[in-house]
Amino acid sequence: MATRTVVITGGGTGIGRAVAARFAAAGDDVVIVGRRREVLRSAADELSAEHGHKVTPIICDLADPDDVEAALSRLPDRIDVLVNNAGSREAAAGAGPHAVLARWRGDFERNVLTAVLLTESVRDRLTPEHGRVITVTSLAALRGGGSYGASKAALHAWNHSLAAQLGPQGVTCNIVAPGTVAGTEFFGARLNDAELTRRAGRTLVGRVGRPGDVAAAVVFLASPDAGFITGEILQCNGGELLGR
Questions:
Q1: How many CA atoms does the CB half-sphere of 154 hold within 13 Å?
Q2: First and final CA of the chain: distance in angstroms?
Q3: Rounded to 5°, angle at Cα 154 from 131 and 201
Q4: β-bridge mates for residue 58, sequence order
Q5: Between 72 and 198, whose confidence is greater?
Q6: For burial by CB atoms within 10 Å, which of 52, 200, 230, 244 has the most?
């Protein structure tokens, strides 16, 4: 396979880093994008040294349209694979309409805008006939999860429209929806041994996921073999929730 140009958001840790590692190991030109300067630069340096192929970091707050616009000159002119992985859960808590607004707005900005603003800004750079857009969401989008689940579900609706718009150019757009994945920052201290055991018991394979499991699903959807798959949601949860 020819060398591809791959842009991965949230590529400094967890799932995003595992995705970046898979593409870098294949010899692709990898760009990781995120807002935490030191985390991103450290990941880029380590991945470059490990795989002998330069990984480029671009610092950008993807929920800020001015920041996205400023980053466009640093992003590749041609993008073969765009992986929208950046996202997190809003920590705002409390009762009352102001707290509810902060929680819902925060989750929308962190999970929806971080994908939509960048994708819409670079859609003309996606390689015709071979381009891939892969967006990482969550099991919460399929079975409920408050404002976080709702924000991830919004990406499912958006992806359907995006796939229809870009399909005539031969660009595919798909979702990977992971279940519980250990080895990320998402759960923090909540994912202790007892919680890991409980969550593993909800799957059909008896374990929770690893970042590499999700990365493998992303790499498949980015491959030439997946060129006739678009507008789909690929669940990656060990059978915790069966497809429908």
A1: 18
A2: 33
A3: 95
A4: 33
A5: 72
A6: 230
CB 30 within 8 A of CB 6: yes
Task: Tell me if residue 181 is catalytic.
Answer: no
C-alpha atoms less than 13 angstroms from C-alpha of 133 in its C-beta half-sphere: 32
How is residue 211 written in tokens? 């970042």
Please compute, for residue 115, the number of CA atoms within 13 A of its CA located in the half-sphere on the CB side: 28
Beta bridge partners of 136: 176
Among all chains, which residue has been given the structure tokens 């991103």? 40
Q: Answer whether 231's CB lies under 8 Å from 132's CB.
A: no
Q: What is the pTM of this model?
A: 0.93
As beta bridge partners, residue 29 has 5
Average pLDDT over residues 126-138: 97
Q: Which two tokens stand for residue 106?
A: 């925060």
**Are residues 12 and 40 in contact, defined by beta-carbon separation less than 8 angstroms?**
yes
- Please give the Cα distance from 109 to 151 (Å, whole number): 9
Which residue among 108, 148, 158, 186 is the active-site one?
Answer: 148
Residues 129 and 80: their CA atoms lie apart, in Å, by: 10
Give the other-Cβ count within 10 Å of 218's Cβ.
Answer: 28
Q: Give me the phi and psi of 22, to 5 degrees please.
A: -65, -45
Q: Rounded distance, CA 177 to CA 145, Å?
A: 13
pLDDT score for 188: 64
Q: What is the pLDDT of residue 92?
A: 62
Buried b (16+ CB within 10 A) or exposed e, 109-123: bbbbbbbbbbbebbb
